TrEMBL record:
Superkingdom as given in the UniProt entry: Bacteria
Species per Swiss-Prot/TrEMBL record: Rhodobium gokarnense
InterPro entries: DUF58, vWFA_dom_sf
Protein name: Uncharacterized protein (DUF58 family)
Domain DUF58: 184-362
SUPFAM superfamilies: vWA-like (SSF53300)
Length: 423
């Protein structure tokens, strides 16, 4: 603004001529003097910034990055260079306290697993006389690790649900209806005659009944498709990250339920297979393993991957498959190989619904483009439903839910299968 005013005065003096022409350079001299004074009066551009951030963030959650700048000017603003795996506001303001320390709390949302570094921070403020704007770039040096979300595991909610279902209120129903021997007890009136152990009764010369309970130590295998379709974002997070969250929750539920847990990951070919293990150490290993799953751009070869899984698991197991498909044509090989697996194993097929697609169907279109979008979304939903129905006819348990609901439905399906002893 000051430069424009000086230019106008110089042009006017030059046009009028005479004595004023000799004064044409005066506005520029005044502007230069004001600029030099402004630089001398303004705070130094060298700033030291203190950063504070938690070392780990669960994917899909938000943590605050705390910034502090000493000897800060008024109206200080900042802008971060965000890494790929963390998102946040494009620009943010600092609050300057009485001791001239500026502080800001910047929300950081974790959107992709991995180790991410904050490279640079740009600060912005105006000089004392508003003639300049200072924009220094400062190296941050802060980093954060985005890890799979195990919030439900840490909260104890899954532990409470599984323990109360399998070993609490329903313990009386499970004992006596299972297939695993529990103990012997004296036969009393009202008990099922089929539970009498006639050989032991003959030895003791009194009726003895066998008490059974639900069998444990089953094999539970979480199989994750890590192909390019699982990179699609749903509710701001890649499908593979939603799948990893649900897989870890199910693995924890299986461990609490006394089962052995294995992990299998595949895309164009099998990538990872971890043999079934029990205990909390197995969960820690699975969590570390899944944290390193990469986001690949390769198409999934279901025929090769599921055939390999079938060959690796001769014992009847519960297999939880997390995958995705585009239409019925692309799902043909998937359905065929799942049908082969279902002959020997118990299967849970998990897919994620897209709330945006469902919202398109529920919203009345106002333009021809909207009609075309509605038809495409309806067709996509219908084809997915058709695939799920075909899988259900093969005896596969289908869990098709929104990302925020899939974990609860999956654990419920696991507990139902466990209680019915179909493994």
């Amino acid at each position: 603004m000051a430069g424009t005013l000086a230019l106008v005065l110089s042009v006017v003096a030059s046009v009028l001529g005479g004595v004023l022409r000799e004064a044409a350079l005066l506005p520029w001299a005044l502007l230069a003097f004001a600029g030099a004074a402004d630089l001398l009066l303004s705070p130094s551009r060298r700033k030291e910034v203190a950063f504070e951030l938690v070392p780990e963030i669960f994917v899909g959650e938000t943590a605050d990055l705390k910034l502090a700048v000493a000897n800060a000017p008024d109206a200080l603003r900042g802008r971060l260079e965000w890494p790929v795996g963390v998102s946040g506001p494009g620009e943010f303001a600092f609050e300057v306290s009485d001791d001239r320390t500026a502080r800001a709390r910047v929300p950081c949302r974790a959107v992709r697993r991995g180790n991410w570094s904050f490279e640079y921070l740009w600060l912005s403020w105006q000089s004392r006389l508003k003639l300049f704007e200072f924009v220094p770039r400062i190296a941050v040096g802060a980093s954060v690790r985005v890890v799979p979300n195990i919030r439900l595991v840490q909260s104890g909610q899954i532990t409470t649900t599984v323990a109360s279902t399998l070993f609490g209120v329903k313990e009386n129903r499970i004992i006596g209806e299972g297939s695993e021997f529990h103990q012997l007890r004296d036969f009393v009136q009202g008990m099922d005659v089929k539970t009498i152990d006639w050989k032991r009764s003959a030895r003791r010369r009194s009726l003895v009944a066998k008490e059974l309970r639900a069998e444990r130590n089953h094999q539970v295998i979480v199989a994750l498709d890590t192909g390019y379709l699982m990179r699609e974002e749903v509710m701001g997070i890649a499908k593979i990250d939603h799948a990893v969250t649900a897989a870890l929750a199910t693995a924890w539920a299986a461990i609490i339920g006394g089962d052995l847990v294995a992990c299998y990951a595949y895309d164009i070919q099998p990538r990872v297979f971890v043999a079934p293990q029990a205990g909390r150490a197995a969960f820690a290993r699975l969590r570390s393993l899944m944290a390193d799953f990469t986001y690949v751009g390769r198409e999934t070869n279901h025929m090769l991957a599921l055939s390999e899984l079938n060959a690796r698991t001769p014992k009847r197991s519960l297999i939880v498959i997390f995958t995705d498909f585009v239409d019925t044509t692309s799902a043909e090989l998937l359905i065929e190989n799942i049908g082969i697996l279902a002959r020997r194993h118990v299967l849970i097929f998990v897919t994620l619904r897209d709330p945006e697609t469902e919202g398109l169907v529920e919203t009345a279109p106002e333009t021809l483009n909207g009609v075309a979008t509605l038809v495409a979304a309806s067709q996509s939903i219908a084809e997915r439903r058709l695939v799920h129905e075909r899988l259900a006819r093969l005896g596969v348990t289908v869990v098709d839910a929104r990302p925020d609901q899939v974990t609860a439905r999956l654990i419920s399906a696991y507990l139902d299968i466990k209680a019915r002893e179909v493994i």
